[in-house]
Design brief:
Distance between the termini: 44 Å
Strand order of the largest sheet: 1-2-3-4-6-9
Number of strands: 9
CATH topology of one domain: 2-enoyl-CoA Hydratase, Chain A, domain 1
CATH superfamily of one domain: 2-enoyl-CoA Hydratase, Chain A, domain 1
CATH architecture of one domain: Alpha-Beta Complex
Shape: globular
Low-confidence stretches: none
Mean pLDDT: 96
Number of helices: 10
Largest sheet: 6 strands, mixed
CATH class of one domain: Alpha Beta
Length: 248
C-alpha cells in the first residue's frame, strides 16, 4: 500500500484503489505504483482476481500532462504496458467519469462494471490530441471497429447503461465496486492455475497489439503536443466551451 494506491485482500480477491481524489489523474509515478501492485500479485497464492477502483468523484479523469513532454508520455506508457502484462484477471469498477487515458486504464482490465450514470469518453479528438493507453486496440476489441471510430472521431461521452449496450462495459450496477468484487469472487472460485493460463491464451494477441500500439500512440501524441489545436482543446476544456480548431 502507498499513499496513492490502496490494497485490501479477502477471499482471494485484491481490491486495488486509486487514491488521488477527486479525479484520480495519473502520471508516471502513479502508474508505476499501480503496475508494481498488479504485477506483484502474479505469483501470489492469496490473490486470484483483482478489482480496480477509485476513491473520489471520478474513476479516472485521464493523464496529468503538465510538463510531461514526449519523453514523459513514453515513460508513462511503459508502465501501462506492464499493466497489460499482469497474470491475474482484473475487474474495473467505474464510477463518475472515465476520461481519455482514464478510459484506457479501465479498458486494460478484463471486465468493467459501470454505474448507470458513469460517463466514459475517449475525448482526445475534442482536445486536438491522439488517443493513447492502447485504446487503438482495446476499443475495437470491445465494441468493434465502426463503433470505436465513432467514439474516437466524435469524442462523445456514453453513460454506463449505453456502455453496456455497446460492449464497452460488461455489467451495470448502482454499486459498481460491490458488484465488481462479487464478480471477481466468482472468478476466484475457478482453478487458480487454470485461470491465468486461459487468460494468457485469450489475451495473447490483445496484449501484444496493445504494447505495439502504445509506441505508435506515444509518437502520434508527441507530434501533436505543440500544436495550436491542442492548446485550444485544453483551453476550451478548462473554460467549458466548444473548441475552435484551425488545423495547425
Amino acid at each position: 500500500m502507498t499513499e496513492s494506491v490502496g490494497i485490501s485482500i479477502a477471499d482471494y480477491v485484491a481490491v486495488v484503489e486509486l487514491r488521488r481524489p477527486p479525479h484520480n489523474f495519473f502520471d508516471e509515478a502513479l502508474l508505476t505504483e499501480l503496475a508494481d501492485v498488479v504485477t506483484g500479485f502474479d505469483d501470489s497464492d492469496d490473490v486470484r482476481a483483482i478489482v480496480l477502483c477509485s476513491e473520489g468523484r471520478n474513476f479516472c479523469a485521464g493523464a496529468d500532462l503538465r510538463g510531461m513532454g514526449p519523453g514523459g508520455i513514453r515513460r508513462v506508457y511503459r508502465q501501462a504496458a506492464r499493466l497489460f502484462a499482469g497474470r491475474k484477471p482484473i475487474v474495473a469498477a467505474v464510477h463518475g467519469r472515465a476520461v481519455g487515458g482514464g478510459l484506457g486504464l479501465a479498458m486494460a482490465a478484463d471486465f468493467r462494471v459501470a454505474a448507470p450514470d458513469a460517463l466514459l469518453t475517449a475525448n482526445f479528438a475534442q482536445l486536438g490530441f491522439h488517443q493513447g493507453f492502447a485504446l487503438s486496440v482495446t476499443l475495437p476489441a470491445a465494441v468493434g471497429q465502426q463503433r470505436a471510430l465513432d467514439l474516437l472521431y466524435t469524442g462523445r461521452a456514453v453513460r454506463g447503461t449505453e456502455a453496456v449496450e455497446l460492449g464497452l462495459c460488461d455489467q451495470v450496477s448502482d454499486d459498481p465496486r460491490a458488484q465488481a468484487i462479487s464478480y471477481a469472487a466468482e472468478i476466484a472460485t475457478s482453478a487458480p492455475l487454470a485461470v491465468p493460463a486461459i487468460r494468457a491464451t485469450m489475451r495473447r494477441s490483445l496484449v501484444s497489439d496493445a504494447v505495439a500500439a502504445l509506441d505508435l500512440e506515444a509518437a502520434a501524441q508527441a507530434a501533436l503536443l505543440d500544436t495550436k489545436d491542442f492548446q485550444e482543446g485544453i483551453a476550451a476544456s478548462i473554460e467549458k466551451r466548444a473548441p475552435v480548431f484551425i488545423g495547425s
